[in-house]
Every structure is written in C-alpha cells, then in structure tokens.
Amino acid sequence: MAPGDEKKKKKRRRRKKKMDDDDFMIESANVAKKLHEKYGSKKGPKDGDVIKTPRIMSGKLVHPTKYLTLMERAERSQWNRLSVPVDPPEKLLPNTRWICALCKKYSCSGDTGDLFGPYYIELDLSSSYFPDFLFPEGTQRPTDNDDENPPSIDVYLHGRCALWSEDLFFLGGKFPMLKEKLYQFWQTTCSSCGKSGASIKSEEEDSFVHFHCLKDHS
Question: What is the pLDDT of residue 139?
Fold first, then answer.
C-alpha cells in the first residue's frame, strides 16, 4: 500500500470516529433534555446539558448522562430481543383451536382477557393424556412411532390464566416450563367446577382452580 493511501485510510478512520462521537453526544444531550423535562427544577441542569460526573441536585443523586444513555440503549436492546417472535418448529401439527390451553375458554370470555400466543410445545407421546380439546373434531392423533421425533403444537393462553398459574413464568419471550406445566394442569381437576385444566393453587391444601372459577367465587 502506498504511503498516501495509508494516510487517507487513517484520515477516514478519524473522521468516522469523530462522527460516532458527535452522534453519541447528540443522543446524550437528548437524554439529558428528557430527564430535565421530567425531573428538572430551577436548580437542575439546563436543557441539553450533559452531566459528566455523578452529582447531588436538590437532595437527589443525578447519574452521568453517558451512563443513562447506555442504560437506555440496553433497555431498548432487551425489549427488542424479548419482542422477537419465536419461529414455529419444523414438525408442527395442524393449527389448534383458538382457545386458552388452561381454562378452555375463548378470548375475552368473562374477565379472562385476551389470548396470547402462539407458544409451541412438543407433544409428550409417552403420556397417557392427549389434549383432544385443542383440536378440531376428527383430528388424527400422532402414533407412538413418532416418539423419537414428536410433533409440536401451537397453544394460546389468557394473560390472567398464565399470570396466576402455579410456577408458570415468562422469561426471554418464552415460558421455559410450559410443556411440563401444561401436562400437569391438564390432568388437574378444578375443585370448583370439576373440569380439568386447573392451574391456580387455592387456599385449600392440594387444591387447584381455574382463573374464572376463582373470580366467580371471590
């Protein structure tokens, strides 16, 4: 490479670094302005001020603008990661009915709220239980020959049914224990209505109820 080309390359790198620094300072100034609009006082920083070091203002700790900018970026990145939809598995059975896999009711039935999903789980073909209620009438069950590579199904849940279910939690855009918990709840009888799918532990020992049953009797 000729000496002149190397100088041009270094000059382009310096110019790009300066542009990146300028963009970061503009973003930091915008964050400072938003913070001032929300928390600012007469003694606080002026619009567009960039706080370089932590300080106490009006009895409150004010973080550096650079720190707040980085935290805002991290929050946006985490939200974007959580919002990415999960791709359906390759071996997926025909669409299930659009009902809650826990209480078996439709969207906005009573106080249950909207249905969320789809979430995907592998069928447990070794289990004696099969969720027939999720499929249209006449759907053929998978055979035992599929044990080594079981098909998956899509399921939907009411937000409130999922929220109050025992040991069912949402992490990273998924329910990590969804398959295991659904098979447990599908074989659990509601102490109120006597139907399966009860997922909310009641005050009585070893007793479970549906969300709508709990709501109706509260």
Answer: 82
